[in-house]
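We emphasize that the prediction below concerns an isolated chain of 108 residues; any contacts that depend on oligomerization or on bound cofactors are therefore not represented. The input was used exactly as deposited, without trimming of termini.
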Amino acid sequence: MAKGTGLPTQSILVRPDAVQAVVLAAGTGQAFDVPAGMAVVAFSMDQDFWVRYGSTAAAVPSTSSTSLTTNAELNPTVRNVQSTATTSGISLISAVACSGSLGWYKAG
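Result of the prediction step, given as a token string:
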């Protein structure tokens, strides 16, 4: 039987090496350390959320337009955080109560 066309398997993200549950209270930031050996994080939340990288200092949504800075990012999907693994980690915040998960992937 001939192999059918479709998405190449190398294009499909494998299951995470570790998963953290996230429950955010409205307007309250929560910090997460990058687990040892992890390089990539996949975010999945049931509401809008903001993420700040490279620090466990609270993520703060921007209230006005800004120039290029290290402000928080709205609703990221998958990010390589390997460059921040030697710092504190990441922080999340949402304007409303929400829940979700962080799927962590090892380097390489």
